[in-house]
Every structure is written in structure tokens, then in C-alpha cells.
Amino acid sequence: GCLQVCVARLQLHHIRIIPSALFQGMGNVQDIFCSVCGGSDPRMDGFWIGVNVVTVEVTVINRLGMHARAAARFVREASTYDSEIWVYKGKARVNGKSIMGILTLAAAMGDRIMIEAHGSDADEAIRALTDLVNTGFEEN
Length: 140
Description:
- The structure is a single chain.
- This protein is α+β, with helices and mostly antiparallel strands.
- It contains five helices and four strands, in the order H-H-E-H-E-E-H-E-H.
- A four-stranded antiparallel sheet has the order 1-4-2-3, covered by helices on one side.
- The longest helix is centred in the C-terminal third of the chain and has 13 residues, at 122-134.
């Protein structure tokens, strides 16, 4: 979708922080970013102005996937950060600080998920959550 394309293009240019002043008088931020990739995605609206945004795509390697214990570990870690944490699987988007949200993704071994953090400690959050997923939630 547009969100992933725009994030990828921003990261390609190493742009992580987009100051609000850059967009003054330019209209809706969704229109600005959609003009970059030609797409349309309502999730873009308002997400980017003056916010540090970091994303990563990872593969769930845990044999049992993101079952209750793994999801609880993920949520516990995500909750230690001030940043908003979002997790995507396919077209589904859930709050990374919600145990029910993570469980509804039903992410199985081998599934690709995208983790996205918005906020001042987004880099640290993404690093810790990526390590957690890449170590099989420390269960393997």
C-alpha cells in the first residue's frame, strides 16, 4: 500500500524526521505523500508531521508463531516505550501495545509482519522489538 511505499522511499533517502514547517500551506499530508507514490491510503493522514517514524519488516521464526505468551512478551516490551507501536500483517493493522490486537493477527511461523513506531524513542523501540521477534521471543 501507499504507506509501505512511502515509508520505503523515505527510508531510502534516510529521512526519519519530517518537520511540520515543511508542510505549512501545502494542504493535507496524505495528498503530499500520495503524490510521491501515486497511491492512496487513509492511514497516511496525519501520521508524518513532525514525528520520528521507523519501520521494519521481520519474519516470525518462533515455531508456535505469535501465540499468547509470545504476544504478551511483545506487548510488554512495546509498552515500555513512549512511541506509538503498530503491527501490520497483510492489510491488518493493530496496536502493538494491545494483547488482543496482536493475537488477532494470528501471525504464524514464517509470516512477515511490519512493525512501525511513531515517536521520540521509535529507533530504540524498533530495535528491541525486532530483536525479540528475531530471537523467537526468546523461546527457541
